[in-house]
Request: fold
Amino acid sequence: MTRNRYETVFITTPVLSDEQTKEVVKKFKDLLKDKGANITHEENWGMRKLAYPIQKKSTGFYYLVEFEADSDVILPFETEFRRDERVIRFLTTRMDKFHIEYAESRRDRESDRREKPKQAAAGAETQA
Reply:
């Protein structure tokens, strides 16, 4: 079997504490690692407003995980999302070469954007 690259975004219920949210994320990351997947990138997008109410909730904690895995890992992974009451939505997509390229360039732009204010602040301190 060939290893594909996947991206999963999932939303947890907003009533969870920070500790409980971290526990949910750890559960799914550990599940992937146990199945032999390699996590390549992850992002915590934090609390965001939903486009429409889901289970009478208007906000949720968003989390993104990119990973490389065999295709037979996806079904048990998604089954676990369906079983977990703390997850209100999830979406897993297989990344093609264009998707991978776009995701990496987006990350590069984000890191550049974060570095510029730090460099500007450091430059202002040396001038003062």
Observations:
- The chain has a mean pLDDT of 87.
- Strands lie at 3-12, 38-54, 57-70, 87-94.
- The first strand starts at residue 3 and ends at 12.
